[in-house]
Design brief:
CATH architecture of the largest domain: Orthogonal Bundle
Number of strands: 4
Helix content: 55-70%
CATH topology of the largest domain: Multidrug-efflux Transporter Regulator, Chain: A, Domain 2
CATH class of the largest domain: Mainly Alpha
Distance between the termini: 37 Å
Radius of gyration: 20 Å
Number of domains: 3
Length: 231
């Protein structure tokens, strides 16, 4: 079942939730979610909660689904809000959007057994990814939300004869990009200002930079393959 993008409008009779109830729904998968983050996403036009006569925000189930979509796209695909907004608009118009992952990818913590089950990799496959630095478990042995994507892509590449040892350069490239972007973080944080609003803006800028690096990497790979094939 594909990732669904909820509608912007809710029926009048639909049950609604307070912002605190929404946080309780989202925190198991997104532990860092805050009221400030929800208000920031609202200000950016990613979610439109209803307003009670008293002025309090009221969220529908569709609002919560939309928030899950946005937060998962940020965390698992490092997409900036601008791109997420464009994808939502395109899907609402019935267009097919390449690169939208299925909803079961976005989990914040996975046990080793769960990771193996969901990715299709056996113990040997997981061990190989760890050996070459592509999977890094937390001290308690669990894995972050990105691990499932890494394992699933590795499983698919394995079907083409590409093993974990062949993927080690990707780890090296990622580390170099992290080092490059990490140098910019203090400057970005200062420019964004203090407080939760500044921190959110800084995080969004980092997401934008990561997305640009991913686009550049993909374009260079495609360019190189085209030259190799004489295209």
């Amino acid at each position: 079942m594909g990732t669904a993008v909820p509608a912007r409008d809710a029926s009048r009779g639909e049950p609604v939730m307070s912002i605190g109830e929404v946080l309780s729904r989202l925190r198991p998968d997104f532990p860092d979610i805050t009221i400030s983050k929800l208000r920031f996403l609202e200000a950016e036009g990613l979610v439109e909660p209803l307003r009670a006569p008293s002025g309090y925000r009221k969220y529908t189930e569709a609002n919560v689904e939309r928030l899950r979509f946005v937060l998962t796209a940020q965390r698992d695909r490092y997409l900036p809000l601008r791109v997420i907004r464009e994808q939502i608009d395109a899907m609402e118009q019935g267009e097919r959007v390449v690169g939208v992952y299925r909803g079961d990818v976005g989990e914040s913590r996975l046990s080793r057994a769960h990771l193996a089950e969901r990715s299709g990799l056996d113990e040997e496959g997981l061990a190989d990814l760890e050996r070459f630095g592509l999977l890094v478990p937390a001290p308690n042995g669990d894995y972050g939300g990105e691990a499932l994507m890494v394992a699933r892509v590795a499983a698919q590449l394995r079907g083409y004869g590409i093993e974990a040892r062949h993927l080690r350069p990707y780890r090296t490239t990622a580390d170099r990009e992290v080092g490059l972007l990490a140098q910019l973080v203090p400057t970005i944080a200062r420019q964004s200002g203090s407080g939760s609003g500044g921190r959110l803006q800084a995080l969004e800028t980092v997401h934008e930079l990561a997305a640009l690096c991913a686009q550049l990497h993909g374009a260079l790979v495609r360019q190189g393959l085209r030259q190799a094939l004489g295209g």
